[in-house]
Amino acid sequence: MTRVLIIDDEPLARMVVLEYLQEFKDQIEVLQECGDGFEGLKAIQQLQPDLVFLDVQMPKINGFEMLELVDNPPAVIFATAFDEYAIKAFEAHAVDYLLKPFSKERFNKAIEKFLAVTPATNNIAKNTETLLEAAAQSPAQNERIVVKTGTKVKIIAVQDVEYLQADDDYVSVITPEGAFLKNKTMAFFEKTLDPRQFVRVHRSYIVAISQITRLDPYEKDSHLAILKSGAKIPVSKTGYVKLKQVLGI
Amino acid sequence: MPSVVDALLSAVLLAVACWLINNNLRYYQPDKESYFYLFIWCAALSVACVAGTRYILPLFNMGQVYFNFLQQSLIIRFFTTFLALGWMAMISALFYTQLDNKRTEQRKTEAEKLARDAELYNLRQQLQPHFLFNSLNSISALIGFKPELARTMIHQLSDFLRGTLKKDEQLLVPLNDELAHLNLYLEIEKVRFGHRLQTEISCDKTCGEAKLPSLLLQPLVENAIKFGLYDTTEAVTISVRAEVEDQYLIIMIQNPYDPKTSRPRKGTGFGLSGVQRRLYLIFARNDLMETHANDNIFTTIIKVPQL
């Protein structure tokens, strides 16, 4: 039995999925329907479903942001009405997606595809990872960072970020309100944050350009960036070159 | 030598007077009745110029003969200066009126173009992304278990699309028409979002006939829904209030929002900024739209002058 969650903010959109799933009721069990990303996140963590039908545009946090917060993401079939960037991301990464409104035939195909590949579940996590990275390139996606603090979800506007610091397997996002951990790599943020606003100045640091008040020379080839908050960020030799390029000096 | 000084001084004074007249006309154009004041203004400036020569030239100590000549030529000086200034004033007035006309014309064509763009944008907005596809998806769901409702929704959707397609040559439409169009849109959104979306529209009898640019409200309400609904997981009430006050139609649109999670409000090019731009192009004023955000309520107010 495949255990399934349906996450969509429009009740009628969930109805369609429910109706189409009737045919598969011997193989597929619908665990729950969720009306937003928070509910969805909770349900995924509690119920550990095998498959999730996920809408992209939802209140508070969207489908991608929700998925970023899940530790072991399940297989996902996305459903969206229209989103150029999302579709590009889907096309590039083997996860299946449905464009609303979708036909029964198209839906069945997606289900069959899922049922056929399900034994090789182990690369779902990797697929989801690369998908999220691709989705994060979209302009709508890189305006904020969503993190989990304990059981709560915190949404950080990108303009509130002072700098990011590598922290073992995590990245620490430093804001005036404090530091938040996100289970992503520095490379991920370097790729997805706007390069005109954020520069990786050091192997372990990405800094918001708007926060820099001063650049002081420091030992040999390196520099120190002094931020508005007073924080001192080491700038490596290559980081200094990048910084000079962006600042046009 | 005295004649050179005289010539230079007269020329400088005349130039200053011309500059004054020209500058004056640049910022203030007299209507037909007040050309008389322009005449007086020219005369006064001429007197000032002549007085200038009369009292400054003697300072150069050029002898009694020249002074006598100066005294005698004052009247002639006055008339020449007056003629020159009058000429200058006429040319300036013509030039600036022309320029003004040209600008008004330009604004008008741009306003028309923008109205067309708004129409096109609206069309694209409904024919392409979320709204249309999601509505069709809702209809697809309704066909399964409430075919009657599906049919109603198809009719609403068609009426709404027809409304946006309607080639409207006239720029201004009565508020009643605009609200009817808005209602179609809201009805469809309500089917999609169910109980989560509630609306309050209030408009007293007097303002139903008030005029406003067509398709102005829908982008504003769409914006309110987008930010209202996507900022919260609770039910949301969007309110639209209209009243007429001092020759203005005032429309206030309110939606709840969450300042903590709200995405930075970047205009989609046509959301709020598009409406402001259209108001500017039609009425040549920049103060007709304002937004406030407080107590978790976002308010957009537009004022439409009633001509």
CATH superfamily of the largest domain in chain A: Response regulator
> Can you tell me the residue ranges of chain A where pLDDT is under 50 for at least 5 consecutive residues?
none
How many domains of chain A? The number is 2
End-to-end separation of chain A in angstroms reads 62 Å
Low-confidence stretches of chain B: none
Name of the top-level CATH class of the largest domain in chain A: Alpha Beta
Pfam family, one (chain A): LytTR
Keywords (chain A): Phosphoprotein
Protein name (chain A): Response regulator
GO molecular function, one term (chain A): DNA binding
Protein architecture, described:
- Chain B: InterPro entries: Bact_2-comp_sensor_kinase, HATPase_C_sf, Sig_transdc_His_kin_internal.
- Chain B: The chain crosses the membrane at residues 6-23, 35-56, 76-97.
- Chain B: It holds the Pfam family His_kinase.
- Chain B: This is GHKL domain-containing protein.
- The complex is a heterodimer of chains A (249) and B (307).
- Chain A has helices spanning 11-21, 37-47, 63-68, 84-92, 104-117, 124-135, 186-192, 237-247; strands spanning 2-7, 28-34, 51-55, 75-80, 97-99, 144-149, 152-157, 163-167, 170-175, 178-182, 198-202, 205-208, 212-217, 223-227, 232-235.
- With 249 residues, chain A is α/β, with parallel strands linked by helices.
- Chain A has 2 domains: 2-135, Rossmann fold, CATH 3.40.50; 144-247, LytTr DNA-binding domain (OB fold (Dihydrolipoamide Acetyltransferase, E2P)), CATH 2.40.50.1020.
- The radius of gyration of chain A is 21 Å and the shape is elongated.
- The relative contact order of chain A is 0.09.
- By secondary structure, chain B is an alpha+beta fold.
- Chain B folds into 2 domains: 2-106, no CATH class; 129-305, Histidine kinase-like ATPase, C-terminal domain (Heat Shock Protein 90), CATH 3.30.565.10.
- Chain B has 8 helices and 7 strands.
- In chain B, helix 4 packs antiparallel against helix 5.
- The longest helix of chain B has 64 residues, at 64-127.
- Chain B starts with a helix and ends with a strand.
- Chain A binds chain B through residues 9-13, 15-16, 19, 35-36, 38-39, 57-60, 81-83, 99-102, 140, 143-144, 155, 157, 159, and chain B through 128-130, 133-134, 136-142, 144-145, 191-194, 196, 229-233, 260-261, 263-264.
